[in-house]
Amino acid sequence: MPRFSAAVIDHFTNPRNCGRLADPDVAAFVGNPVCGDQIRLTARVSEDAVSDIGFEAFGCSASLAVASILTERLAGMPVSDIAGIHQAQVDEWAGGLAPDQQHVAVLGADVAHRLAENHRDGVIDEAGSVAGG
Amino acid sequence: MVGMPGEALRVPRATWRQSLTDAVRAAFSYHYERNAFYRAQCDGVSPADICGHADLHKIPLVPVGMFKQAGAHVLLTAGLADIETEIRSTGTGGVPSVARRDALTTTRASVGILGGYRDLFGISKGAGLFLCPSTAEVPEMGMVKVFNLMTAMLDDHRYLVRGYSFDPQEALQYLRSWEGTMTRYIIGPPFIIARFMRYLELESIPLSLDPDSMIIMLGGWKQYTGRSISRDEFNDKAQRLLGVDPSRIRDMYGMIESNMLAIECEHHRKHVPPWCYVSIRDITDPAIELAPGKTGGIAILDALNTAYPGFLLSDDVGEVDESDCPCGRTGQTVRFRRRRQGAELGCCAVSIEKYLDSNEVVAECELADAAGRV
Questions:
Q1: Which phi-psi region, left, alpha or beta, contains residue B47 (left: φ > 0; alpha: ψ -120 to 50)?
Q2: Preferred mutation among B74, B75, B90, B357 to probe A, highest tally of A CBs within 10 A
Q3: What are phi and psi of B364, to 5 degrees?
Q4: Confidence label for B374 from pLDDT (cuts 50, 70 and 90)
Q5: CA–CA separation, B156 vs B153, rounded Å?
């Protein structure tokens, strides 16, 4: 089995929606304090669905790719659905992550949940506060 | 050169210069031809401009900070499909630096580092007490990966940092269990070994390792708090508390982005491996190369890397020495002085220490809470 799925290679090499949105309605940051992988999502929300989204990510290739994949998947998605995204879903979107990359699926699900929670609570994660994991 | 670095480090100086120049120039050509991003940074310098050793400093450098950036994919000469390992280091800033190596680079680096260990440590048996987490716990941490290669030369070994906690009593138990049966080696970042020695000192525990025992270190002497460990004090304590002669206390210097691991000989000079050229640069103008003995920014030109251009301008400050070492090796030795002003304190050891300390604080608070509740 190749170490990286076609989806991970594609999104790592050609990241989509890279960067932080100006004046977002919601922002979510999750970092793994041990390995250092970090994903930040910034989004605008219209009629309770994501209308525009950007990512910043640091860490392994799978983390960068999953952050990019998330922005494509979350665009247009109702915030209530984002709250229900689980690790297996992220793994599937990424085309199947290797065992040593599964922490990235967790990170991806965590940052999605945080985005939904922050929207509900009216919170914008500003600095690199470490959360979830 | 890679398989037997010990031989390559003992050739006449002119031969070393020629073989190093050939290897670095070939590596420059390789990346220049295949990596459009790097070629765009070359600003008119091409492989045709690298005619001799004196031209090596013209090879354009990649600042190590780029390995932290989200768009790091542009650094790759190899495609992601060819990447086999991702090694990382996280400093006080929290953003990891990630170095991606393809299969060829991974093989070359593994063989080369092992060859360096064989040449400079001469270990082929014994027991290693690794005062750091295992690769199973932190599989991508550069320092641990480099230490882990050493297990191939040992008959037994234990990793003593688990769940970001370290129990010096357990370390002592292992050292005692190996006594009289195997030569004992202690391997780890200086600050954890210093903790272990502090424990022995405070508890007045007598311990004398074996005549061939060594202490082997990597990770730097500055703690995350900014305080430095004194090498002289460390050596004195190791001799007094562990019975290890200072000539057998060896430090190493490297960075995860490079395949350069400079290993100390018995004269405490860190030998640059024969596939790397360390070039010292003017701090204010990195285009200017400084003469050996002058202090400046450390740049490394690494000929082994096929995954990305291994021509790096680090955030470290130090100097090189090109005089022959009394140990008989030629080539260069490197001395790290400090981090560049404004650069974050960053390495795997700092990250481990920070979490060890935070765990101890948590544990102490829990004990205090429990005591308060009783």
A1: alpha
A2: B90
A3: -65, -40
A4: very low
A5: 9
Closest CB from B70, B84, B351 relative to A3: B84
Q: B105 pLDDT exceeds 50?
A: yes
C-alpha separations of B7 from B153, B261, B325 in Å? 19, 16, 14
**In Å, how far are A62, A65, A127, B95, B348 from A130, measured between CA atoms?**
19, 20, 9, 11, 18
ipTM computed for the complex: 0.85
> For the whole model, what pTM was predicted?
0.90
| Per-residue model confidence as pLDDT tens digits over A62-111 | 999 999 999 999 999 999 999 999 999 999 999 999 998 999 999 999 99
Per the CB < 8 Å rule, is A36 touching B84? no
Burial of A59 (0-12, 13-18, 19+ CB in 10 A): buried
What distances in angstroms separate CA A23 from CA A124, B179, B189, one per listed residue? Answer: 10, 65, 44
**Are residue B147 and residue B188 in the same domain, yes or no?**
yes
Tell whether B326 and B363 lie within a shared domain: no
Pick from A15, A59, A61: CB nearest B83:
A61
Q: Indicate the number of domains in chain B.
A: 2
Within 10 angstroms of residue B278's Cβ, the number of other Cβ atoms is 27
Domain housing B333:
5-110+274-339
Report pLDDT digits (tens) over A5-33.
999 999 999 999 999 999 999 999 998 77
**Strand locations in B167-302 (E):** 184-188, 214-217, 249-254, 261-264, 270-271, 276-281, 296-302
CA dist B76 and A64 (Å) reads: 15
